[in-house]
Amino acid sequence: MTGLAIDDAAWASAWRRRSPGDKLLVSLGLVLSALLLPVWPGSLLVGLAAVVLALGPARVPVRTFARAVRAPLAFIVIGALTSVVEVGDGLGWAPDAAAQAGSLVGHAVAGSAAVLLLATTTPMSDLLPALQRLRVPAAVVEVAGLVYRMLFVLLTSLATIREAQTARMGYATVRSSYRSSGALAAAVLTRSWDRARRLQDGLAGRGLEAGLRVLPETLPASRRFEAATVAGLAALAAVSLGVAS
Q1: Which residues cross the membrane (predicted)?
Q2: pTM of structure
Protein backbone atom coordinates (compact mmCIF):
# COMPACT_ATOMS: atom_id res chain seq x y z
CA MET A 1 0.00 0.00 0.00
CA THR A 2 1.22 3.47 -0.86
CA GLY A 3 1.96 5.47 2.26
CA LEU A 4 2.24 9.08 3.28
CA ALA A 5 5.71 10.36 4.09
CA ILE A 6 4.35 12.38 7.03
CA ASP A 7 2.53 9.34 8.39
CA ASP A 8 5.64 7.18 8.03
CA ALA A 9 7.69 9.84 9.83
CA ALA A 10 5.14 9.95 12.67
CA TRP A 11 5.35 6.18 13.19
CA ALA A 12 9.15 6.25 13.11
CA SER A 13 9.52 9.37 15.28
CA ALA A 14 11.42 9.21 18.55
CA TRP A 15 8.33 10.84 20.10
CA ARG A 16 6.06 8.00 18.94
CA ARG A 17 5.74 6.61 22.49
CA ARG A 18 5.13 10.03 24.04
CA SER A 19 1.60 10.93 25.08
CA PRO A 20 -0.45 12.71 22.38
CA GLY A 21 -1.53 15.19 25.05
CA ASP A 22 2.08 16.19 25.64
CA LYS A 23 2.63 16.76 21.93
CA LEU A 24 -0.65 18.64 21.58
CA LEU A 25 0.46 20.93 24.41
CA VAL A 26 3.72 21.72 22.60
CA SER A 27 2.17 22.26 19.18
CA LEU A 28 -0.87 24.23 20.32
CA GLY A 29 1.32 26.35 22.57
CA LEU A 30 3.60 27.16 19.65
CA VAL A 31 0.63 27.89 17.36
CA LEU A 32 -0.84 30.33 19.89
CA SER A 33 2.57 31.92 20.36
CA ALA A 34 2.90 32.33 16.58
CA LEU A 35 -0.49 34.07 16.46
CA LEU A 36 -0.18 36.29 19.52
CA LEU A 37 3.48 37.26 19.76
CA PRO A 38 5.03 40.02 17.62
CA VAL A 39 6.23 38.80 14.26
CA TRP A 40 9.74 39.93 15.22
CA PRO A 41 11.22 38.11 16.93
CA GLY A 42 8.28 35.99 18.10
CA SER A 43 7.44 34.22 14.85
CA LEU A 44 11.11 33.58 14.10
CA LEU A 45 11.66 32.02 17.53
CA VAL A 46 8.50 29.90 17.26
CA GLY A 47 9.47 28.61 13.83
CA LEU A 48 13.00 27.83 14.96
CA ALA A 49 11.71 26.06 18.09
CA ALA A 50 9.33 23.89 16.04
CA VAL A 51 12.04 22.96 13.52
CA VAL A 52 14.64 22.24 16.22
CA LEU A 53 12.23 20.04 18.17
CA ALA A 54 11.20 18.13 15.04
CA LEU A 55 14.68 17.53 13.68
CA GLY A 56 16.36 17.17 17.09
CA PRO A 57 14.56 15.32 19.91
CA ALA A 58 11.81 13.91 17.64
CA ARG A 59 14.34 12.88 14.94
CA VAL A 60 12.07 13.62 11.97
CA PRO A 61 14.00 13.25 8.69
CA VAL A 62 15.10 16.62 7.33
CA ARG A 63 13.92 15.80 3.81
CA THR A 64 10.45 14.76 4.99
CA PHE A 65 9.98 17.92 7.06
CA ALA A 66 11.26 20.15 4.24
CA ARG A 67 8.94 18.53 1.69
CA ALA A 68 5.99 18.89 4.07
CA VAL A 69 6.64 22.62 4.45
CA ARG A 70 6.59 23.28 0.69
CA ALA A 71 2.82 22.98 0.16
CA PRO A 72 1.70 25.39 2.91
CA LEU A 73 4.55 27.72 1.99
CA ALA A 74 3.17 28.08 -1.55
CA PHE A 75 -0.27 29.04 -0.22
CA ILE A 76 1.31 31.47 2.25
CA VAL A 77 3.27 33.26 -0.48
CA ILE A 78 0.19 33.51 -2.73
CA GLY A 79 -1.88 34.83 0.17
CA ALA A 80 0.78 37.39 1.05
CA LEU A 81 0.91 38.67 -2.51
CA THR A 82 -2.87 39.04 -2.79
CA SER A 83 -3.15 40.78 0.59
CA VAL A 84 -0.80 43.62 -0.34
CA VAL A 85 -2.40 44.51 -3.67
CA GLU A 86 -4.54 47.66 -3.56
CA VAL A 87 -7.43 48.07 -5.99
CA GLY A 88 -8.38 51.67 -6.76
CA ASP A 89 -8.04 53.47 -10.05
CA GLY A 90 -5.77 50.59 -10.96
CA LEU A 91 -3.76 47.82 -9.40
CA GLY A 92 -0.95 48.84 -7.08
CA TRP A 93 0.87 48.00 -3.90
CA ALA A 94 -0.57 49.02 -0.54
CA PRO A 95 1.39 51.75 1.29
CA ASP A 96 2.62 49.31 3.92
CA ALA A 97 2.87 46.32 1.61
CA ALA A 98 6.23 45.11 2.86
CA ALA A 99 5.17 45.21 6.52
CA GLN A 100 1.86 43.46 5.82
CA ALA A 101 3.47 40.74 3.74
CA GLY A 102 6.25 40.19 6.27
CA SER A 103 3.79 39.94 9.16
CA LEU A 104 1.51 37.52 7.32
CA VAL A 105 4.35 35.29 6.14
CA GLY A 106 6.04 35.30 9.56
CA HIS A 107 2.95 34.31 11.53
CA ALA A 108 1.79 31.76 8.95
CA VAL A 109 5.16 30.02 8.51
CA ALA A 110 5.69 29.77 12.27
CA GLY A 111 2.19 28.38 12.82
CA SER A 112 2.58 25.89 9.96
CA ALA A 113 5.88 24.64 11.38
CA ALA A 114 4.20 24.11 14.76
CA VAL A 115 1.36 22.12 13.18
CA LEU A 116 3.82 20.03 11.17
CA LEU A 117 5.67 19.24 14.40
CA LEU A 118 2.51 17.51 15.61
CA ALA A 119 1.78 15.88 12.24
CA THR A 120 5.26 14.37 11.88
CA THR A 121 5.39 13.01 15.43
CA THR A 122 1.83 11.80 16.12
CA PRO A 123 0.06 9.08 14.09
CA MET A 124 -3.64 9.61 13.46
CA SER A 125 -4.44 6.46 15.43
CA ASP A 126 -3.07 8.28 18.51
CA LEU A 127 -4.41 11.72 17.69
CA LEU A 128 -8.07 10.82 17.10
CA PRO A 129 -8.62 9.21 20.55
CA ALA A 130 -6.86 12.20 22.11
CA LEU A 131 -9.30 14.54 20.35
CA GLN A 132 -12.20 12.49 21.69
CA ARG A 133 -10.85 12.84 25.23
CA LEU A 134 -10.66 16.61 24.66
CA ARG A 135 -14.43 16.64 23.94
CA VAL A 136 -14.09 17.37 20.23
CA PRO A 137 -17.50 16.53 18.65
CA ALA A 138 -17.72 12.84 17.71
CA ALA A 139 -18.90 13.68 14.19
CA VAL A 140 -15.79 15.76 13.54
CA VAL A 141 -13.50 13.00 14.78
CA GLU A 142 -15.35 10.36 12.73
CA VAL A 143 -15.14 12.41 9.52
CA ALA A 144 -11.43 13.02 10.12
CA GLY A 145 -10.85 9.29 10.56
CA LEU A 146 -12.76 8.40 7.39
CA VAL A 147 -10.91 11.02 5.33
CA TYR A 148 -7.61 9.69 6.67
CA ARG A 149 -8.49 6.12 5.67
CA MET A 150 -9.73 7.17 2.24
CA LEU A 151 -6.43 8.94 1.55
CA PHE A 152 -4.71 5.57 1.33
CA VAL A 153 -7.37 4.30 -1.08
CA LEU A 154 -6.74 7.35 -3.26
CA LEU A 155 -2.98 6.91 -3.18
CA THR A 156 -3.18 3.19 -3.95
CA SER A 157 -5.55 3.79 -6.88
CA LEU A 158 -3.36 6.63 -8.14
CA ALA A 159 -0.18 4.54 -8.07
CA THR A 160 -1.82 1.51 -9.70
CA ILE A 161 -3.45 3.41 -12.56
CA ARG A 162 -0.39 5.56 -13.24
CA GLU A 163 1.83 2.49 -13.35
CA ALA A 164 -0.48 0.91 -15.93
CA GLN A 165 -0.51 4.09 -18.00
CA THR A 166 3.27 4.37 -17.90
CA ALA A 167 3.62 0.76 -19.06
CA ARG A 168 1.44 1.63 -22.08
CA MET A 169 3.62 4.69 -22.91
CA GLY A 170 0.92 7.04 -21.71
CA TYR A 171 3.46 9.71 -20.79
CA ALA A 172 5.79 9.38 -23.78
CA THR A 173 4.84 12.78 -25.25
CA VAL A 174 3.42 16.03 -23.92
CA ARG A 175 0.08 15.46 -25.64
CA SER A 176 -0.27 11.93 -24.33
CA SER A 177 0.73 13.12 -20.86
CA TYR A 178 -2.17 15.60 -20.80
CA ARG A 179 -4.55 12.91 -21.98
CA SER A 180 -3.28 10.37 -19.48
CA SER A 181 -3.40 12.87 -16.60
CA GLY A 182 -7.05 13.66 -17.34
CA ALA A 183 -7.94 9.99 -17.54
CA LEU A 184 -6.01 9.35 -14.32
CA ALA A 185 -7.91 12.03 -12.41
CA ALA A 186 -11.26 10.79 -13.70
CA ALA A 187 -10.50 7.15 -12.89
CA VAL A 188 -9.22 7.90 -9.38
CA LEU A 189 -12.21 10.07 -8.47
CA THR A 190 -14.69 7.53 -9.88
CA ARG A 191 -13.06 4.63 -8.07
CA SER A 192 -12.84 6.55 -4.81
CA TRP A 193 -16.50 7.56 -5.03
CA ASP A 194 -17.47 3.94 -5.64
CA ARG A 195 -15.38 2.73 -2.69
CA ALA A 196 -16.91 5.36 -0.40
CA ARG A 197 -20.44 4.41 -1.48
CA ARG A 198 -19.79 0.72 -0.91
CA LEU A 199 -18.28 1.49 2.50
CA GLN A 200 -21.36 3.49 3.45
CA ASP A 201 -23.71 0.72 2.25
CA GLY A 202 -21.73 -1.90 4.15
CA LEU A 203 -21.82 0.05 7.41
CA ALA A 204 -25.53 0.82 6.99
CA GLY A 205 -26.23 -2.87 6.32
CA ARG A 206 -24.60 -3.75 9.63
CA GLY A 207 -26.78 -1.25 11.45
CA LEU A 208 -23.86 0.96 12.44
CA GLU A 209 -25.25 4.26 13.70
CA ALA A 210 -22.45 5.36 16.02
CA GLY A 211 -18.71 5.65 15.39
CA LEU A 212 -16.41 2.68 15.15
CA ARG A 213 -15.41 1.56 18.64
CA VAL A 214 -11.76 0.72 19.06
CA LEU A 215 -9.46 0.20 22.04
CA PRO A 216 -6.87 2.98 21.86
CA GLU A 217 -3.36 2.55 23.14
CA THR A 218 -2.80 4.40 26.40
CA LEU A 219 0.41 6.43 26.54
CA PRO A 220 1.04 8.05 29.93
CA ALA A 221 1.68 11.76 30.13
CA SER A 222 4.97 13.10 31.44
CA ARG A 223 4.71 15.81 34.08
CA ARG A 224 8.34 16.71 33.56
CA PHE A 225 7.79 17.15 29.82
CA GLU A 226 4.68 19.27 30.40
CA ALA A 227 6.49 21.46 32.93
CA ALA A 228 9.42 21.93 30.54
CA THR A 229 6.97 22.80 27.74
CA VAL A 230 5.21 25.47 29.82
CA ALA A 231 8.54 26.90 30.97
CA GLY A 232 9.87 26.96 27.40
CA LEU A 233 6.77 28.69 26.05
CA ALA A 234 6.92 31.26 28.87
CA ALA A 235 10.60 31.93 28.16
CA LEU A 236 9.90 32.28 24.45
CA ALA A 237 7.12 34.78 25.14
CA ALA A 238 9.28 36.74 27.59
CA VAL A 239 12.18 37.02 25.14
CA SER A 240 9.88 38.00 22.26
CA LEU A 241 8.04 40.69 24.21
CA GLY A 242 11.27 41.96 25.71
CA VAL A 243 12.97 42.39 22.35
CA ALA A 244 9.85 43.85 20.72
CA SER A 245 9.45 46.48 23.42
Answers
A1: 24-56, 68-85, 97-119, 139-161
A2: 0.78
